[in-house]
Amino acid sequence: MFVDSVDSDIAPSGTLLGLLQRGRGDGTLHALAAPRTEALAALRQCVLHDPRRDWHIEHRSLYYARLHMELDAGLDDFEKHLFHPDDQLGDAADAEARTGLALSVLGHLASYGDEGALALLRRYATAGANWQWALDELAVRDEDAGLRALGPAVLARFPGTPEGDAALAAAARDAFEPRPWRLWAEDTAHPAQADRLRRVREQGSFDRWQRQMRTSGPRPGWSVREVLDWAQDGYEQHPPQHRESAAARCLAAVAGPEDRAELLAAARGPREAARAAALRHLAERDGAGVLDLIEEAAADPNETVSTAALTSFARMRSVAALERARQWAVAPEDTLPDGLAAVAAEMLACRGARRDADAVLTALRRTIRRHGPDSEALWPLVDGAGRLTIACAAPVLRHIYRETASSQLRGRAARALAATDPSFPAGFAIECLWDCEETTREVAAQCATTGDARVVERLRRLAADPAEEAGVQSAVRGRLSPDGGR
Fold it and tell me: So which domain of life are we looking at (predicted)?
């Protein structure tokens, strides 16, 4: 019935490795029940070969760190991985992808008092390619003395040349955690180091001020035509500079009622970026005829134009846009431009009423059938199934929960199941208490039945865990209070 995940790097969901890669709660439960060597091998594979589709929004580090402690695993694999010769190959993005998850797990282990993990992070910060990540982990966990000791080695990475000083200024400016840099700039034991940091920061501020003064972007007094020309000029450069969104914001400041005819002409015209900027500007004002313009532009073969049409419609908030979404969402397949029915269903999922439940469910099933359980198009549809309490969507939601490789999408499916599936509190909610995403654990803490002995014990452990998120602990305290259980 459904398309399966095609991500070849993710094991099947019914295996221990597949469960751990997805960050599912059942992964921890199965690992603790499996032979230790098998569990350690699966955990090692996950930590050293990041399985996340997007590490910016998906969490695994605390999940793997907790299992690492439960299995009493050592740090030898971390050390071999971090200091392997491959660490010095590739660029910064390659280093982040290769070692970021391992460093984050070490950070959590250090927060639990593992001195070996702390020592590995310090050593890697002085010698590793992804040293900024290790430094950020240390910045929130190490003592001042430990961080100060790293200063000379870190600054030695940057030669005392104009290029080296520029790179040093960029590293200090872009650091996620500024604490180490502040300590080094104030370290009286190394006055030359403090002086150099102060000097490069001042130069960086001056250079940024100069760039702002030399900007070639829109200026006060520009006309609508000049803004549209600026957007088109960027599009025609090599490589293209996509200025459509910025141009639309500029149009909001310079366009008046007398410019409407020019904007309508641009929204139908042949210049791609100018057309995209005009479409977005007109859609934000819900002017008459803009919905017809969007439908026409969505069929344009140019991706910049068609994408601008779809995103412009998705941002509209008028009643007329909602009514048009109802028409587009139920249109026969292949009668509308690609994407238009999907964005219409997304609008109904986010803003529709109970009468739109069938259209949202149809879109949810169609997306699963065509694109499988990992499609980003599922996110608003899953949320909509929960918001509209579409009970007959529960089987599809359970399939998404089991199969998706995205822990964020699985969390959305869990929230939707909590609203649509009466079996959720005694089923998936229990394993969600061990899930890698804190928002999913929070839903579980609110819903999981306390009739299962594992639930109360897990709630108590989460309440006592200093690394647990505040939202989860608030939900846990609510359930553990005398009148909070079920």
Answer: Bacteria
Task: Report the C-alpha gap between 120 and 289 in whole angstroms.
Answer: 62
Q: Which two tokens stand for residue 193?
A: 């180091």
Residue extents of the structural domains in the chain: 16-213, 223-316
In eight-state DSSP terms, residue 356 is G
Which positions ≥6 away from 388 have C-beta within 8 Å?
Answer: 349, 352, 353, 354, 356, 357, 360
Tokens for 37?
């060597």
Among 64, 175, 58, which residue's Cα sits nearest to residue 112? Answer: 64
Quote the pLDDT of residue 288. 73
Say what the pLDDT of residue 165 is.
84
Q: Take residue 481 and report the two structure tokens written for it.
A: 């209070």
Q: Are residues 345 and 335 in contact, defined by beta-carbon separation less than 8 angstroms?
A: no
The DSSP secondary-structure symbol of 331 reads S
Interhelix angle 394-403/407-420, nearest 10 degrees: 150
Q: What is the pLDDT of residue 210?
A: 53
Per 3-state DSSP, the chain is made up of helix, strand and coil in percentages (nearest 5) of 70, 0, 30
Q: How many CB atoms lie under 10 A from the CB of residue 35?
A: 9
| pLDDT (0 to 100) of residue 233 | 94
Taking the CA atoms of residue 67, residue 71, residue 74 and residue 79 in that order, the dihedral angle to the nearest 10 degrees is -30
Query: What pLDDT does residue 5 have?
Result: 42
CB atoms within 10 A of CB 221: 7
Q: What is the DSSP string of 87-115?
A: GGSS-HHHHHHHHHHHHHHHHHHHHTT-H
Residue 214 confidence (pLDDT): 56
**Residue 79, H or E segment:** helix 76-82
357, amino acid identity: A
> If you ran DSSP here, which 8-state letter would residue 86 be given?
G
Which residue in 239, 302, 238, 315 sits closest to 275, CA to CA? 302
- pLDDT averaged over consecutive 10-residue blocks of the chain (486 residues)? 52 96 97 97 97 93 98 96 92 91 97 96 95 96 95 91 87 88 89 86 57 56 89 93 92 90 94 95 86 94 95 93 95 86 96 96 95 95 98 97 97 98 96 97 95 91 94 91 60
Predicted local confidence at residue 484, as pLDDT: 57
3-class DSSP state of 454? helix
Q: What six digits make up the tokens of 229?
A: 């020309």
| Contact partners, residue 105, CB within 8 Å, separation at least 6 | 47, 61, 64, 65, 68, 78
Cα separation, 254 vs 251, whole angstroms: 5
- 188 class by beta-carbon count within 10 Å (0-12 exposed, 13-18 middle, 19+ buried): exposed
**Among residues 460, 451, 458, 452, which one has the least CA distance to residue 481?**
460
Q: What is the CA radius of gyration of the chain?
A: 27
Please count the residues of the chain. Answer: 486
